[in-house]
Amino acid sequence: MKQEMAEMGAVRVLGWLAGQEDLMPVFLGATGAAPEDLRAAATEPDFLASVLDFVLMDDRWVIDCAGALGMSPERIAELRRALPGGALPNWT
Asked: pLDDT for 40-88, tens place per residue?
């Protein structure tokens, strides 16, 4: 997957996250981001990677997000792998 496609998918995940009244404050607290900074930060691949990292921390969040966005839960992990720092380590 190309990074540009992953960024567009991650923006969709951010949109879902922004609509989660109970979860969005947790994300903001964990990242130190301010609500007024989200629009500008949404153009930064590293920030978008942090959005996906956050959602991927909990299976329920992944399932809920994927269902709301009409994608498979595995797709969220695929998006993450295509962004900076998302490559899986090769142990061999």
From this structure: 999 999 999 999 999 999 999 999 999 999 999 999 999 999 998 877 6
What pLDDT is attached to residue 90? 55
Q: Cite the DSSP H helix spans in the chain.
A: 3-18, 24-31, 38-41, 45-55, 59-69, 73-81
Instruction: Report how far residue 17's alpha carbon sits from residue 84's, in angstroms, rounded to the nearest whole number.
Output: 20
CB-based contacts of 5: which residues, under 8 Å, 6+ apart?
Answer: 82
Give the residue extent of every domain in the chain: 3-81
Sign of CA dihedral 34, 57, 61, 69: positive
Query: At a CB cut-off of 8 Å and minimum separation 6, what does 43 contact?
Result: none
Residue 63 near residue 71, CB atoms below 8 Å: no
pTM given for the model: 0.90
